[in-house]
């Protein structure tokens, strides 16, 4: 691992990307063309530093997924109290109550799994961090799908932030490695 300062010969910033979600985060290419990195910019034990950063990134992706889930749940709780259909508050409907209950359970499970993830990070347990990222990012998709079902057209439109959360929830699936790659790596580890 190494640090390259802006303005270093051979180091360029490439194309910036527009993304469907997480629009507050800049995405783009870093281009290295015959870039010479001074010896003092090389980080000792770079592989360990990269692994540690990746491990922390998986935990961070999980935390983002949990935050999106909690935010969507709060929007839904408000929506079902204020939205009426045929004179009845949406929250009085049995199916909506069931969805809220499932969302709440999923969020609590995500919260507990992230606590396990913090412990896994401290133990430097890559397999456990993969489990955490896989579980939490997929759980977030389930929660947001339920949020969209509860809020209906309002959630699908820009009237509510559900549509943004729904788009944003896809980014943690790709963070550091795709969900599918993470599952494949974990599956390989579990066979050893």
N-to-C CA distance: 28 Å
Q: Work out the strand percent.
A: 5-15%
List the strand order in the largest sheet: 1-2
Radius of gyration: 21 Å
What's the count of strands? 4
- Largest β-sheet summary: 2 strands, antiparallel
Reported by name, the CATH topology of the largest domain is Butyryl-CoA Dehydrogenase, subunit A, domain 3
GO molecular function: acyl-CoA dehydrogenase activity
InterPro entries: Acyl-CoA_Oxase/DH_mid-dom_sf, AcylCo_DH-like_C, AcylCo_DH/oxidase_C, AcylCoA_DH/oxidase_NM_dom_sf
Family: Belongs to the acyl-CoA dehydrogenase family.
Pfam families: Acyl-CoA_dh_1
Main traits of this protein?
two-stranded antiparallel ribbon; 6 helices; 2 domains; 192 residues; Butyryl-CoA Dehydrogenase, subunit A, domain 3; mainly alpha
Structural commentary:
The chain is mainly alpha-helical. The chain folds into 2 domains: 11-41, no CATH class; 46-190, Butyryl-CoA Dehydrogenase, subunit A, domain 3, CATH 1.20.140.10. 62% of the residues lie in helices and 9% in strands. It contains 6 helices and 4 strands; from the N terminus they run E-E-H-E-E-H-H-H-H-H. It has helices at 46-82, 94-122, 126-156, 162-168, 171-174, 179-190; strands at residues 11-17, 27-32, 84-85, 88-89. Strands 1-2 form a two-stranded antiparallel ribbon. Strands 3-4 form a two-stranded antiparallel ribbon. A hairpin with a 2-residue loop joins strand 3 and strand 4. Helix 3 runs antiparallel to helix 4 and helix 3 (126-156) runs antiparallel to helix 6. The longest helix is centred in the middle third of the chain and has 37 residues, at 46-82. The protein is globular. The two termini are 28 Å apart. The mean pLDDT is 91.
């Amino acid at each position: 691992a190494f640090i390259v300062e802006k303005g270093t010969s051979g180091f360029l910033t490439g194309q910036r990307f527009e993304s469907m979600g997480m629009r507050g985060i800049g995405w783009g290419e870093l281009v290295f063309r015959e870039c010479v990195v001074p010896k003092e910019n090389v980080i000792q034990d770079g592989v360990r530093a990269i692994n540690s950063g990746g491990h922390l990134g998986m935990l961070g992706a999980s935390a983002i997924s949990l935050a999106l889930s909690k935010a969507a749940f709060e929007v839904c709780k408000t929506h079902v109290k204020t939205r009426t259909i045929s004179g009845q508050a949406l929250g009085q409907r049995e199916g909506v109550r069931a969805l809220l209950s499932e969302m709440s359970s999923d969020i609590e499970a995500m919260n507990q799994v992230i606590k396990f993830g913090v412990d896994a990070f401290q133990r430097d347990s890559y397999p456990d961090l993969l489990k955490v990222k896989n579980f939490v990012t997929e759980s977030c998709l389930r929660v947001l799908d339920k949020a969209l079902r509860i809020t209906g057209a309002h959630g699908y439109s820009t009237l509510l932030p559900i549509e943004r959360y729904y788009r944003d929830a896809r980014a943690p699936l790709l963070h550091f490695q795709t969900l599918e790659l993470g599952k494949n790596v974990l599956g390989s580890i579990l066979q050893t």
